Amino acid sequence: PAPVVAHEDPGLLMNLSLRARLTILTAALVAISTAALGTVIYFSAQSIQTERIDDALASEISEARVRSLQDNPRPPQDGIFVTVALGRLDRDGGITQLRPAGTREQPIPLPALTADQIADATREPITITSDGRNLRVAVSSHGSGDASIVAAARVDRYEQRMGSLGTTCIASDLGGTFVGAIIAWLLVSGAFR
Predict the structure, then answer these.
(1) CA–CA separation, 139 vs 116, rounded Å?
(2) Residue pLDDT, tens place only, 133-155
(3) Is the pLDDT confidence value at 97 over 90?
(4) Between the CA of residue 95 and those of 11, 15, 27, 130, 140, what are the distances in Å?
(5) Could you give phi then psi for residue 136, rounded to 5 degrees?
């Protein structure tokens, strides 16, 4: 009897026509390149947005009139949304609110912070969750009396924008891959006539 020779399955890709293989390869290259570009765009935008929020916190701290706000607290004006809440860090670690964020009708108070969060936010702004809201928080010394000022801003709109950007990047990647595959199929079909 003749020996039995096992035939290896060449795989799904090798069973396809040359046109189909070239189209799949082109679509894969388009998908990889657009995914890489989308990733770079997403993380660049995330970095820029976070930097803008951090700059706004630093600006609010540097411009804070602590004594004036302490002696005469000012709630937000009607119909105006204040993006950054301000407070003064007390010697006992508590926070005295100087100005809430939000609107007069819906004020957003400063979050309670742990000693570790205060220490971290003193080095660089941090993101925390308080009462179901994500907030970016910074703590910095301010003025001649070296009062420590706490500034906090909601980041939920920023997170919504980043979610939209992520969705757009994914949709663009899928659309670009689909269009690239169609163009590749047409070019390959035209070349093999």
Answers:
(1) 12
(2) 888 999 887 655 567 888 899 88
(3) no
(4) 66, 69, 56, 15, 13
(5) -100, 130
pTM to 2 decimals? Answer: 0.71
Per the structure block, which two tokens stand in for 27?
């679509």
**With contact defined as beta carbons under 8 Å apart, do 153 and 133 qualify?**
no
Q: What are the DSSP calls for the chain, one per residue? A: -PPP-PPPP--HHHHS-HHHHHHHHHHHHHHHHHHHHHHHHHHHHHHHHHHHHHHHHHHHHHH--HHHHHHS--PPPTT--B-EEEEEE-TTS-EEEEE-EE-SSSEEPPPP--HHHHHHHHHS-EEEEETTEEEEEEEEEETTTTEEEEEEEE-HHHHHHHHHHHHHHHHHHHHHHHHHHHHHHHHHHHHT-
Q: Which two tokens stand for residue 97?
A: 């609110």
Cα(50)–Cα(42) distance, integer angstroms: 12
Do the strands 133-142 and 147-154 form a parallel or antiparallel pair, or are they unpaired? antiparallel
pLDDT tens track for 5-34: 555 655 666 777 888 888 888 888 888 998
Residues in the chain: 193
Bridge partners of 147?
A: 142
